[in-house]
Amino acid sequence: MATLSIENLTYAPAGRDKPVLRNLTATFSGGRFSLLTGPSGSGKTTLLRLLAGLTPLPAGATVTFDGQALSAVPPTQRSATVALMFQEPSTQFTMDTVTNELRFVLENQNVAPAAMPAKITAALDFVGIAALKDRRLMELSGGEQQKVALAIIVAMNSDVILLDEPFASIDPPTRQVLLEKLVHLCTHAGKTIILADHDLSGYSHLIDHLSLLTNGQMTQLSAAATQERLAAFTPARLRLAHVTLPPTDQPVSLQGTALGLQQGDRQLVTPQDLRFLSHHTTLITGPNGSGKSTLLRALVRLGKYQGKLTFQNHDIQRIRRKVYARNVGLMFQTARAQFLNVTLAEELALSQQHGNRDYFTPERVHAAMEQLQLAGRENQVIYSLSSGQQKKFQLLCMLMMAPDVLLLDEPLKGLDLASIHAALDLLATTQAALHLTIILISHQLSGLDDFVDYHLALADQHLTYRDQEVAP
């Protein structure tokens, strides 16, 4: 067990006038499970990077593990003390396949080659992804990548484990299983775990305490305050009580006939007929790796599919690519993969140039930036934003493009509850004004009940519309 202590930590990122962390002092007891939450951009990722030694500590600040300063631990030995799982796991990978990535990590810890197979197998089994061991990392879904990143952390066997939004792309049932496995690491292996998350579902009986990071300060909440925050994420709050089955007599925007999906030799979706109604919102749910993102990529002609897809009764393969792209647009799961410029102002100008300029006037864009708490950041480098801020900005840029059909792949990933409500309000307002058809994938269900019209569940290679039930 390792107790982690922070003293006098004040940190301002390069180019920022105001510090994101202010004279922070805190202690995380060894062998305990601590949950850290706070608004998007409050400094959670920055703090975890400082604790892991990936960002140099500023003068006057100290981070110690059982009294030993982090700076005194040689970089080659640091992974035995502390390990960090990134918010975007794909930025953490180096090798091509799952097994090779795990082997690479163990090699860097000087693990004997003969001991590696057992450690790799144990880590994959612990997370429940033995079937992925020979898969190529970049062919995995976002949720599968997060599971691999967690397996890597388990294999490293560090005393202190730092996790940055580790379940943002993971389906709810798997999320609960992995949470309980993390508790097992605390109680049976003596690991100290600090986990940053916006989605607080499933934590009520598992964590030792909840800390709130806001305005540069960290506050450990009382038991009553903790339960009050967790209450917003109870199963009853996540229920889809207002969805209905789509009627058969309404206009259809996208339609699949004998539509099937494959990935290599794996059949993801057995050929079936499928309809998406115009000017409505359809939520797609399903287990990680089941083919949800693959479906969205097929709908925008970025991936192969079986059968036939039509947009407004026209075969999408017969529509000119440029014309189709203006009518059906995809918001990627990873925000930074969508940006083409350096600053927010440059990206906004590009979206204004190619999007719906009649609706998104400069005044309306400014109002949206204020609504998403991004106003005043126009000259900031996009990649210096937090992941949650990047996600909100990505959503605004896609709405400014205003395609007839907007496909959203995990649009709420990494957003705090206030940001979720702001994003959904902006979505709903824009959809009503421009009569958009919205199809979204989301494992984050909080706030979606009043926004979603139809729920399409992907399970056992088949897509089925469901009526008024808790999404899997």
UniProtKB/TrEMBL annotation:
One of its GO terms (molecular function) is ATP binding. Gene3D superfamilies: P-loop containing nucleotide triphosphate hydrolases. InterPro entries: AAA+_ATPase (IPR003593), ABC_transporter-like_ATP-bd (IPR003439), ABC_transporter-like_CS (IPR017871), ABC_transpr_CbiO/EcfA_su (IPR015856), ECF_ABC_transporter_ATP-bd (IPR050095), P-loop_NTPase (IPR027417). It is a peripheral membrane protein. Belongs to the ABC transporter superfamily. One of its GO terms (cellular component) is ATP-binding cassette (ABC) transporter complex. Residues 4-240, 238-470 form the ABC transporter domain. It is found in: Cell membrane. Its main location: membrane. This is Energy-coupling factor ABC transporter ATP-binding protein.
